[in-house]
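Checklist before submission:
- one chain only
- standard amino acids only
- sequence pasted in full

Submission:
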Amino acid sequence: MNQRRSWFIVTAFAVIVALLTLIPYLVMDANTPEDSVFLYTMGNNYDQASYQAWMKQAEEGKILAGSNYTTERQPGKFFNPFFILCGWFVKVTGLPMLAAYQAIRLILVIVVILMLYKFSEFFLKGFRERFFFTALATLSSGFGFFLSTKWLKFFQETYNIVSLDLWVPEANIFITLLEKPLFMMALILVLLTFILLLKLFKSPKRSTVYYAGLVMFLLALIHPYDMATIYGVIVMYLLWSKADRVRWVCFAGAVAISALAMIYEYMLSAYDPFMREWGKTLTLSSTIYSYPMGFGLLFIAAVAFAIKKWRKLEKAEIFLLSWFFSHLLLAYMPIRFERRLLLGLTVPLALLSTLYFFKYALPNLNKRFVLAKNNVIVVMVIVILLTVPSNIRYVVDEYDFFKQSPNNYCLKKGDYDAYLWMDKNLKRDTVVFAFYSTGVYMPGLTGCKVYAGHYDQTLNAEKKKKLTGVFYEPKTSDYFRTDLLKNIRAKYVYYGSFEKYIGDPGFDAKPYLTKVYDNEGVKIYEIIGARY
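Returned file contents:
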């Protein structure tokens, strides 16, 4: 098959997958309660809201951003090219934030799939093998569909060992495509880095060193966790393949170019109070049992291939195994972001599985079954379908969560309309006091700051979360309220659907507040005399 036709087929497949990932959103939107607006996000709503908050600052022209989830004074220090580009996309297209976020996600789904296919050229020869790998890496999941959490209680660590494919987006490319634009961008850069480094090791050139270093530089700024993967994989590969001095020097050159970005990230996490708070979040690895469960048939086939070829490994296969083994080493190092390193691990496992399928499994099937020999494509489709069920279960589970807890996926229309009003009428970085649950979405949709709204981007989040509740209790004294508002330099008080659940403090009659917005049960008050 000629190259143009093969790329056309892969692109068509990528578009189909992108449209498939849109279906769950459309179904949820169609089943959203009449009094609510679907936010077109799935998975961890805190993550999605915080991404939009970074994008909002870039849309407003900021290059160095600060946290809008906390009111402490802070100079903007956070530089992330991905969120900047996304913010510019929102500004240039004029799309609402929710629509722009979905558009970015769909575009990146296509790019990721095309990058997977391109990456496979280093390891697989024919189009059939490469396309099989691309589909397998995109759609595969583990044994989560077949394993009930109840069956795992005898391990005593149910949360940690529950099948990775059902709860860790980094371990499942399909979930990444479904939910996480940031992870998709990081995966694209990881694959591009490896493509350039493999080219560099095959034919050392100074220009390739520069290109690889530049991509690593961008990766370090966008998703620095993955630099550990890059360093670990390449060091193990060069050692295992007994690379010469030239290859080591070339890699060192690329590392040197990316070093400035890594130093910048370290300085932020070590000395900036906000970034230090963000870095405290623990994402520890699951137990070793979770790997065969989470990757399922891919894990089994990859191990089988490694066993069969262990004594006659080619350099390309050494690279794939280096990716897997270096991950296992790094995943249990004493670091706080162990689980983050799972991003992309599906790729080497899917490639090793593809090699096993075409070199061993398929020839064996052809010998035993004439039907398999005459229907290779059917066999390939069946194998891929066997790896899909957990992804179906994940989508169904998300829909069930949506029906049970719509507040994690939707905003009341009154709140959403109030956010639109705030976006048009309030100055950027204005401090608006609201209940913690309201504060989750406000920065991304309005550009305003909140006192509390995120578990790891709000300084002293747990304490502030409680205080936002106390503020709206009717029995709370006005002295407490005015003192708190003054200390955080708030200019507005928000009273919407979440705040109503706590109580009615009678803000209309408070002498220190004047109502500036009242629509569909949502009220916004300006604080009289707030001129800081």
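Reviewer check: The mean pLDDT is 91.
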